[in-house]
Amino acid sequence: KVRDFLMERDGVAPAVKQSTAPKDTYADVLSNDMNAISHISSTIDKKVLNNFAKHLIDAKDIYVLGLRSAMPTASWFCTHLSLMRDGLHFVNFDAKSIASSIAKMKKGNVLVLISKENDPEDLEAVIEFATRKGVKVILIADEVADEYKPLVAMHLSVKWPRLGIENMALVSMLHSVLMATDEKMKKKQERKNAKTVGRSSSELQGVI
Known about the structure:
By secondary structure, the protein is of the alpha/beta class. It is 57% helix and 12% strand. The chain contains 7 helices and 5 strands, in the order αααβαβαβαββα. The chain has helices at residues 2-10, 25-43, 46-58, 71-82, 95-104, 120-132, 166-207; strands at residues 62-67, 88-91, 110-115, 136-140, 154-156. The protein has a 5-stranded parallel β-sheet with strand order 2-1-3-4-5, sandwiched between helices. α6 links the parallel β3 (110-115) and β4 (136-140). α3 packs across α7 (166-207) and α4 runs parallel beside α7 (166-207). The mean pLDDT is 83.
């Protein structure tokens, strides 16, 4: 019907213009992803990632909150971390859930707080109220006001080189943290097992 209407109005249906050089979307996506990973590799210190992992291992409970568009990435990170250890709590991005979760937090807990937008009001409110409970906040955000920097246990400031690849860069960094955490937890368990075996051997020799 639309074609008939256009032909009646103009007499001839417009020809469909063919692109002479179709855009290679897949190549662009892969190139952007690789650039994001390369960017993270060159800007994040390995010591920082290992320190991040240590906080995750030592914490009694861990809360993970992603503000706005960072919520899906926070959920992904929380899900994978929960496969390594207990005590994980994902916090939905709504005022009621945030307030309820902060009320449950205790000293010795860790809050992983992720933000990709420049929205200081929500970010600073969460930092302020969580740290009042003695919670260690690991902040992943571009910027935070100077007066809030001393409150957080860690601040990973990632400067995205171009809009559109920030999620891959963020996931790449968090994936590195997960791998570092997994490696440290396995080594910790190996040392624990070695001590148990050594203790058992000593006890057995004492009986003999």
